[in-house]
Write a structure and sequence with these properties.
The complex is a heterodimer of chains A (112) and B (114).
Chain A (H helix, E strand, L loop, with lengths): L4 E3 L2 E4 L5 E6 L6 E7 L6 E7 L2 E5 L6 E5 L5 E5 L8 E8 L7 E2 L3 E5 L1
Parallel strand pairs in A: 2-11
Antiparallel strand pairs in A: 1-3, 3-8, 4-5, 4-9, 5-6, 7-8, 9-10, 9-11
Chain B lengths: L2 E5 L2 E5 L4 E8 L4 E8 L5 E7 L5 E3 L5 E5 L4 E6 L8 E9 L7 E2 L3 E6 L1
Parallel strand pairs in B: 2-11
Antiparallel strand pairs in B: 1-3, 3-8, 4-5, 4-9, 6-7, 7-8, 9-10, 9-11
The chains are: A mainly beta (112), B mainly beta (114).
């Protein structure tokens, strides 16, 4: 079965650089969620999209932005990276009317 | 607002012993509850979920959880621990309505002693 695809799997950036993380949801899943998991932490909700519109917003810094495209894939754009942004970033997708969140394998971002 | 509390950040059991990981939730609306497992440097894998049907939910790898509304709990159990069960376990809650985000607990690291 198709899963949630995230790219890249690993990313190393320097401070003040920018990064773009991509998420391809399961076909026919219309909702995408982004989470950030710091070392030894539980996943923290960043932002979600339903039918290409932002549906909820969590603890996402102003330096970050995200969008969902017409093919339902989503991108998380991160600018002016800081050391504290080093984390595992997960994307999850779900059909709106069925509670079935499926997580991708994550992108590990390291800021040096 | 919804929240989840996992009692015990670390749990250690012997191989073959009962596994019990505790989760209590807070929700002003009927909840949907999930348990996820995370192995080192890997993603989140769904173990099981409660979606307002049967209160005793069976998941993968021999795990099960019971939804107890009176106790606002959703504890995860496995009768006999296996070495491969060593991982981080997260309890999460969301609501029935709409495209709602998952709210995670702090996680419980399960260690299996040989």
């Amino acid at each position: 079965a198709a899963g949630v695809i995230q790219s890249p799997r690993h990313l190393i950036k320097e401070k003040r650089e920018t990064a773009t993380l991509k998420c391809y949801p399961i076909p026919r899943h219309d909702t995408v969620y982004w989470y950030q998991q710091g070392p030894g932490q539980d996943p923290q909700f960043l932002i979600s999209f339903y039918e290409k519109m932002q549906s909820d917003k969590g603890s996402i810094p102003d330096r970050f932005s995200a969008q969902q495209f017409s093919d339902y894939h989503s991108e998380l754009n991160m600018s002016s990276l800081e050391l504290g942004d080093s984390a595992l970033y997960f994307c999850a997708s779900s059909p709106r009317r069925v509670k079935g969140y499926t997580f991708g394998s994550g992108t590990r971002l390291t800021v040096v | 607002a919804q929240s989840v509390t996992q009692l015990g950040s670390h749990v250690s059991v012997s191989e073959g012993a009962l596994v019990l990981l505790r989760c209590n939730y807070s929700s002003s609306v009927p909840p949907y509850l999930f348990w996820y497992v995370q192995y080192p440097n890997q993603g989140l894998q769904l173990l099981l979920k409660y979606t307002s049907a049967a209160t005793l939910v069976k998941g993968i790898n021999g795990f099960e959880a019971e939804f107890k509304k009176s106790e606002t709990s959703f504890h995860l159990t496995k009768p006999s621990a296996h070495m491969s069960d060593a991982a981080e376990y997260f309890c999460a809650v969301t609501s029935l309505q709409g495209a709602q985000k998952l709210v995670f607990g702090q996680g419980t690291r399960l260690t299996i002693n040989p």
